[in-house]
Write a structure and sequence with these properties.
The complex is a heterodimer. Chain A is an alpha/beta fold. Chain A is built from 5 helices and 4 strands, in the order βαβαβαβαα. Chain A has a 4-stranded parallel sheet with strand order 2-1-3-4, with helices on both faces. In chain A, α1 links the parallel β1 and β2. In chain A, α1 packs across α4 and α2 crosses α3. The radius of gyration of chain A is 15 Å and the shape is globular. Chain B is of the alpha/beta class. In chain B, 45% of the residues lie in helices and 7% in strands. Chain B has 18 helices and 7 strands. In chain B, β2, α13 and β3 form a beta-alpha-beta unit. The radius of gyration of chain B is 20 Å and the shape is globular. Chain B starts with a helix and ends with a helix. The chains are: A alpha/beta, B alpha/beta. The interface between A and B is medium-sized, with 18 and 22 residues.
């Protein structure tokens, strides 16, 4: 396994996904320290502009998470997230960015285990894909940090 | 450059305070708090920081109507762009439309990407990897994705352009590596991002062996013509707009009758900026059966499409677009012909919400020609 630590931006909606992330934390579930979670009130707030900005700034992967369809706290915000992610995916294809680097997942507040498992799985996939070509100039500085190995989640 | 330099280069010192600019400005007409005269005066009176921190710095459409009427020829659009460069240096930016998707795309394209952007080409269109003529497509493939809910297929213009070029015996180079021309980055004061894109584009074109670059987009054309030489040096190739190329060659095209009444919307970049008014008209009138009627505000008096640089879309823009649509409607034409892909997008966006009030349809100039080739 290489020492490449992917930098993953996770958009998590306040009512479901972020709460799910909290549950993973409170339950002491382990997952790789590669994710940077940005809390939004609703996954519908996430626009193609946000997603591309994350990649422009050097993110290797972007994970958009929200409430399950039908459960959105704002009724239909997560439907907007579907449209936004699809648009971003098409733009990434034009730009030559691997579309696997963008993923949309529905995570409820009760799914702490699932959150941890998804973060682990997505990190693995990003390791397979390697660093993004748009890598930030500060990437080399990150390799000098000592990052403890994450213990995989048995689930 | 500091503001005294900006004032000197844009001739702002010669401002007579006459207010003709504000009287002409499409933004001021809708938003009375905006004043080009007031903007110049606030800097001349020694308070450039008032301008930098004012949201109105980003309201200017750079349409140039003011500067064509200014008795002192103050270059107001250049003044605004230079002020935006200064603002950006202090960390101030405008509020970008569509959550800055366009600016993000331009930023990414300035880096090392291996695009996959020529999928819009269809069978029957002849292009090559190397040649004398390079067709600069611009952001059309990206517009297709971003504006697909408007029902505007921007790459139709690209396909029709290649078709038209083929019809006059030109097999253009279409490159997978061209980037956004960067005009909108420069308009928003991002010289650094603009230069990155310009340098790559010039290299890509030079590598293709092309001696001439053909544009369908007026904004890209103007960027290469007016801005590229200032920032990346004189260009090793000629530049021409599609309408300039076709204007004298309409008899080479086998066009069928299109018995329609249309009006033509002069884009700011082709019109006031480059003085190209006759060629697009010659192309439109070269289609048999077409009757071209003029809007009251045409040529150098043409009203801007209301939105520029993806930075000032809002109530103001919509009012300006509705006014333009009403002007088109008043001619009795069934269609308004646009030649700029962005004018088309902005006016289509307003048309979508105009409902029954506006009966005029919008069409790209290449679309009109494409229909004439089809029949």
């Amino acid at each position: 396994m290489s020492d490449f630590q992917p930098r993953i931006v996770v958009f998590a909606c306040n009512w479901c996904s972020y709460a799910g992330a909290d549950l993973a934390g409170v339950s002491r579930m382990q997952y790789p320290p590669t994710t940077r979670v940005i809390r939004v009130m609703c996954s519908g707030r996430v626009t193609p502009g946000f997603i591309l900005e994350a990649f422009r700034l050097g993110a290797d992967g972007v994970l958009v998470t929200g409430c399950h369809p039908g459960d959105c706290h704002y009724i239909s915000g997560n439907e907007k997230a579907v449209v936004a992610v699809e648009k971003a995916r098409q733009l990434m294809a034009l730009l030559g960015l691997k579309t696997d680097r963008l993923r949309l997942e529905w995570i409820s507040a009760a799914e702490g285990t699932r959150f941890a498992r998804l973060m682990t799985g997505f990190t693995e996939r990003m390791r397979e894909l390697g660093p993004s070509r748009l890598g930030s100039p500060h990437r080399h500085e990150l390799h000098e940090l000592v990052v403890p190995d994450a213990v995989g989640v048995d689930a | 450059m500091a503001f005294d330099e900006i004032v000197r280069l844009t001739r702002s010192y010669y401002c007579l305070d006459c207010g003709k600019c504000t009287g002409s400005c499409p933004v001021a007409r809708v938003d009375v708090t905006y004043s080009p005269r007031g903007t110049i005066e606030s800097v001349l009176s020694g308070h450039p920081e008032e301008l930098i921190n004012n949201h109105h710095l980003w309201s200017c459409l750079t349409c140039g109507l003011c500067t064509t009427r200014c008795p002192s020829s103050v270059d107001y659009p250049a003044f605004v762009v230079a002020a935006r460069v200064q603002a950006r240096k202090t960390g101030v930016e405008g509020i970008y439309a569509h959550n800055a998707i366009m600016q993000q795309l331009m930023g990414i394209m300035g880096g090392s990407v291996q695009q996959n952007r020529t999928g819009w080409l269809t069978d029957g269109l002849q292009t090559s990897a190397r040649g004398d003529d390079f067709y600069f497509v611009g952001c059309l493939p990206y517009f297709d994705v971003i504006f697909d809910d408007l029902g505007v297929v921007s790459t139709d213009a690209a396909r029709n352009t290649v078709r038209l070029l083929n019809a006059v015996g030109i097999v253009p180079v279409v490159s997978n590596d061209e980037r956004c021309c960067g005009a909108d980055l420069l308009l928003n004061g991002d010289e650094e991002g603009f230069i990155k894109l310009a340098e790559v584009n010039v290299q890509v074109i030079a590598d293709s062996g092309a001696k001439r670059v053909i544009f369908s987009c007026p904004e890209c054309y103007n960027a290469f013509r007016s801005d590229y030489p200032r920032y990346v040096g004189s260009l090793p190739f000629e530049l021409v707009h599609l309408t300039e190329l076709l204007a004298g060659r309409m008899d080479e095209l086998e066009l069928c009758e299109v018995p329609e009444t249309v009006t033509y919307h002069d884009p700011c970049r082709l019109g006031r900026y480059l003085g190209i008014y006759d060629e697009p008209r010659a192309v439109i009138e070269g289609v048999p059966g077409v009757e071209l009627v003029e809007m009251r505000k045409n040529r150098s008096n043409a009203l801007c499409c209301g939105s520029t640089g993806w930075v000032n879309c809002g109530r103001c823009a919509k009012e300006i677009q509705m006014e333009r649509l009403r002007q088109a409607q008043a001619t009795g034409a069934t269609r308004m012909i646009t030649v700029c892909p962005k004018c088309r997008i902005h006016l289509s966006c307003a048309l979508k919400d105009a409902g029954d009030e506006i009966a005029v349809a919008l069409e790209d100039l290449t679309g009109l020609l494409g229909r004439a080739l089809d029949r």
